[in-house]
Amino acid sequence: MDRVEVSTVVYLPPEEIYEFLEDFPGYAEYSKYLEEVRSDGDGSPGTRYFLTFAWWKLTYTAHSKVTDTDPPNRIDWEITKDIDAEGHWTVDPIPEERPDSQEHACRVRLTVTFRPDSADSGVLDLPGFVSMDWVIEKVKPKIQAEAERVVERIVADLEGRQREVELEIETVDTSV
Q1: How far apart are alpha carbons 162 and 81 in whole angstroms?
Q2: Are the C-beta atoms of residues 144 and 169 closer than 8 Å to each other?
Q3: Strands 48-55 and 34-40
Q4: What's the whole-model pTM score?
Q5: Residue 35: C-alpha distances to residues 27, 105, 106, 153 (Å)
Q6: Residue 163 near residue 21, CB atoms below 8 Å
Q7: What is the distance between the terminal CA atoms of the chain, rounded to a whole angstrom?
Q8: How far apart are CA 79 and CA 166, in angstroms?
């Protein structure tokens, strides 16, 4: 499985951060490629989401499901159609990293794991000269860039101001 993990520090209580992250349909505002999010549920385990992405000449609707929650610390999810992928948001209080000017500090982490070779080549209407392997190699760096963009925008909305956000990024590519 390949993994992308993006994290940063947010200066709010974990409950406020969790409530914000639980509003998954709002994520469409943060992503360059996520056009629409429809939901069937309230964000608790079992809630299903339908995410419509568009990039290049491709449009695809991913189906995901919340598999577990541990308020205010964690939201687990999985993709339920066409690719083996899952992930989670975690919110970990880190009082030792709280500056004197802030009441709270939490590390917010988005982790996505996926198996690139599990993508079903029949789900996309690819031009005849384009292979699924080519699409996967082009999309992998976009997943990381999107994770970064989403986290930066969420921090700005959560804290109510734009600030330089220090992101910790870890990627593991098992295809090499």
Answers
A1: 36
A2: yes
A3: antiparallel
A4: 0.78
A5: 10, 31, 29, 16
A6: no
A7: 12
A8: 28
Lateral strand order in the sheet of 48-55: 34-40, 48-55, 58-70, 74-79, 84-93, 106-115, 2-10, 168-172
Q: Which of 94, 70, 95, 77 is nearest to 18 (CA)?
A: 70
**Residue 31, CA atoms < 13 Å, CB-side half-sphere:** 21
Residue 175, both tokens = 């295809």
CA distance 84 to 80: 8
pLDDT in tens, 92-122: 999 999 999 999 999 999 898 987 676 655 5
d(CA 87, CA 78): 6
Residues facing residue 37 across a β-bridge: 51
Q: Supply angle C-alpha 34, 24, 145, rounded to 5.
A: 45
pLDDT of 19 higher than 70? yes
pLDDT digits (tens, 9 = 90+) for 5-17: 888 899 999 999 9
Do you know the residue count of the chain? 176
User: For residue 93, what are the β-bridge partners?
Assistant: 106
Q: What is the pLDDT of residues 39-67, one digit of tens each?
A: 999 889 999 999 888 876 678 888 999 99
165: phi then psi, degrees, rounded to nearest 5: -110, 125
